[in-house]
Batch of 4 targets.
Target 1
Amino acid sequence: MVNWRVLGPLEIVHHGRHIDAGPPQRRAVLGILLLARGKPVSRGRITRLLWGDDPPASPTNSLRTHVSRLRQTFRENGLTADHARLLTVGDGYRLTTGDGSLDLVRFERLTCQAKDAPDRTALPLFESAFALWRGPMLPELSSDVFRENVLPRYEEVRLTAYENHVDARLRVGEHVGLVPELLEFTQEFPYRTRLRIQLMLSLYRCGRGAEALTVYRDTRGHFSAQLGLDAPAELRALESLILTESPSLTDVSHFVSMDLLRPTRPLAATRPVSHTWSVN
């Protein structure tokens, strides 16, 4: 069994043994091909993702060398065609690996299962999924093209899964432990409505209603000063519920299933998520 890991620095683990994939640029090429999940990636796209606006004098030759050395690494470490098949396809390359061997795929499967499971079943599934992340995704890929146009979509997937995890924890009464986590996340992602809702609710359930209202006022100020917008309707609705001390706020099964916690618009992270780029 080979484990291909992109949720952090790139790693290849074969029967518990780490395989050295070479210098950072070569690992970056491998990371790009892994993210394509078996689809061909053109040399031009790899060049843009790898070097951005500053490619070497002969990027095609550089890529051929990296691919050749990767194939050699696979052979020397006993990786057969069942483990990895790196093919030249047209003007690019395609890497196929065993089903479920990529940590990103396992993360998506676990979080999908958790979202549809009862809360007590979902919690360990979410925890197993987040344990797959070992740090920032693929630090070997440092080009602005990758960091600004590809990476945000994976950050969005991770954040949405985290928010689903928080919802499940709120439904089982874990609001006390959530407050410090959510304070940190809302600082990092100040315009993410759902996280603000979850923080306000957690604070209120801890008997800290005044602090929950302060979060609302701070959010309204951020949206006004930075975006020229009023606070989102979901937050305004929650403020009204807090001001009237609505019993629904402490009714776990009723409140978290309300549309208030199901935003009707895409929620932004710190940067807009681009849908115009992919790795393949």
Target 2
Amino acid sequence: MTLRHLKIFVTVCETGSTTAAGEKLHIAQPSISLAISELEDYYGIKLFDRIAKRLYITEAGKKFLQYATHIVGLFEEMEREIKNFDATGIIRIGASITIGNYLLPGYITRFKKIHPQMDVKVIIDNSEKIQQYILSNQIDIGLIEGIVYSPYIAEHKFRDDELVMVCGNAHPFANQKNVEISKLQNESFILRESGSAGREIFDSTMTSLGIKILPAWESTSTQAIIRAVQANLGISVLPYLLVKDSLNRKEISQFHIDGIRFQRSFSVIYHQNKFLTESAKDFIALCK
């Protein structure tokens, strides 16, 4: 078993077929198939089920992929670092929308003061996608809200956060302190998309209380939600960091549900098999 075998396996997983992997790696398709067979024989496992001329990764293959992805990634990182030891390095950061909007710019500014030659690449997406990018080695470090689901991801909580209920200034709930939860069922909700950490917390809380909410609107854009709330088209629940400016300008109003608070944590995450460079450790230390 060699690094070449691992790279072929990872590429087959990425492309979905031995033919596409061969084209990407400039290797003949029979050599790709042979490398996969050699891996399976070496470890005594089936990496793929072959059904109707298509490949379907097995559970053993999924576990193997987690290790192979990071072994290949670590080797490629070593190649870049050693061959260009004095050149500019790259750190790849992923952040949820809330963190990316309000905290990440400050973290990167401070990081660049410590490592002025480092190039920082950033992806902003919802927390679920950021976890997927960690698992597929598309980013080195992630900053997310809410719960980590994969056992392959290491996490360190670094800050607490709260979601708040908001409505238009003309809405009957505006500035109310003890709105009964049962009254929410009669309201139109404008919510973030499924997969966002805030939406997940809100949905799970409502479900645990026996309240079923069917959103009238769903959006990946916080600003679109705020504008719709401002126009009194519905109510919403959003991170305080994302609505505090609108609240301070009195564009929208906050209200409280009797006996309920939506609290969560921000976490810095990375793959448990990831080799953390000194610059990566420095970035993590800045997250507070």
Target 3
Amino acid sequence: MLKEILLRLAVYPAAFFLLTLVVLWSVIRPPKITARQSPEDYHLPSEDVTLVTQDGLKLSGWFIPKEGTQDSVKRAIIIIHGYPVEKGDMLGIAAQLHPDFDLLLFDLRYFGKSEGIYTTLGIKERLDLYSALDFLQLRGYQHIGVFGFSLGGAVALLTAAEDHRIDAVAGYAVFSDVKTLGEETYSRFWIFKKPLVGSMLIWARLLFGESPAVVSPVNAAKKVHVPVFLIHTRQDEQISITHGERLMDALGHNDKSEFYFPDQGLHGETPVDFYQRVNHFFQD
């Protein structure tokens, strides 16, 4: 009897730990959502480009030059999509910024037409953004801003803490850290949510080489000194406003940071003055 009990005590935790790997795998390999939109649908001139990351992945991108005479100082904005969509989902904001800026949109690893076995939730996506910065630098751009939605905003903050080629960051519905987001997402599992997320983070560290609990937007924000503009609706049902508030606290040292937390709007819904505010931020 005692032997059977001890065996169960050993088997059940091991089975649970293996189950968390399956859950993590479903998170980092979600069904891909294709926007099925192209720059032509928005009457935007574009060039298909391929970015190559430091770890050898090829990423699909669109370079969208603004029309008319180029400024003496070349400025561009990199636009990064969220999870689990692709670059076509960001053409709406691209169309709003296009009159004033050259733009570069690309699919993060795994998503869209880019290579990659899985997403790393921001860890290795920093390499994706590095490759976009390399591309623009080779084309002579001296001032580069980054706009990111959700995961894209997290990648922007993580990279801005390390790469000084980024002059400004704007983010919409950015999560503060994967651990908190995971515990909120799996809150229905009650007392099991913390061991579930904790085990998933252990697997993530083994797969990614770094822990998303450590390499997090909220930690990166403490090291970012360039202008930052964060937008987060208080009605967001997927990434709660507490994430925006935590990021605001982390950016307390940065007197060039701005925040807009409107009351209305679900995840991904843009406030009425959204485009105007983002454009004005990058113009400054």
Target 4
Amino acid sequence: MASSHDDERPHLVASDLDGTLLRSDGSVSARTGEVWSALAGAGVETVVVTARPPRWLHHLSDIVGGTRDAHSVAICGNGAFVYDVADRVVLESHGFEPGVARGLVGDLLREFPNAGAAVETDRGMYRTRAYPDQHVGEPGHDTAVGDVTDCELAELPDDLVVGKILIRDEAWSDDAFVADVTQCLGERGVLAYSGAGGLAEISAPGVTKAVRLEAWCLERGIGREAVWAFGDMPNDLPMLDWASRGVAVANAHEDVLAAADDRCAANDEDGVAEYPARRLL
């Protein structure tokens, strides 16, 4: 994380969304919106790096889109997709081939027969009817569901890129479920835990927030020594570790709090706004 360059002014501030940049109700506070916009005016680029899929970012265009420059781009799906929110175009997709995804889902559902399964792809979500929807009523959700197809995942089309596999069983505790899914998965994917109860989020090998953020920065000539990153959950740890300064919000998972270079106020107290505002604006 921290390096000898840690005190240098960053060229880029990267932030997770849920539990970090967004408040607990999924909204963006006026203060956070003000500071996030002001950073661009101060010569500091910003990018969101989120587990959310492309379809669930459109209502946040004031934060992650709305201009025809780097600020219209979001890294989403835990690094599976690079998405231009302004143009609503998936620029990059990194994930499983559909046949591989179908095989993995089949193995996991045999191991967890009461679970529901879904996949996030470059063309939206495909989900089994048993997959529980816990986001009804949250900001942006009810428009995002227009890109959801209910089907048996054995029917998944062959011309998709599967960015993320989702397995959810609400009867399981988080730690036990993640541990058992990890054992079943082996080295066939990367299991990310973002805090949702009874949910395992699986990316293809080598696909993480950190890998995609590093590649995105390299394309723009931005070295890790010039990047600050904010997060709250274990799926943010590789990104916080890669950045020169990894900052945990006060409400973060205990593992993230222990590993981060620094801490800021909680998401409901606009921590991701106040921390750079005091240091950069």
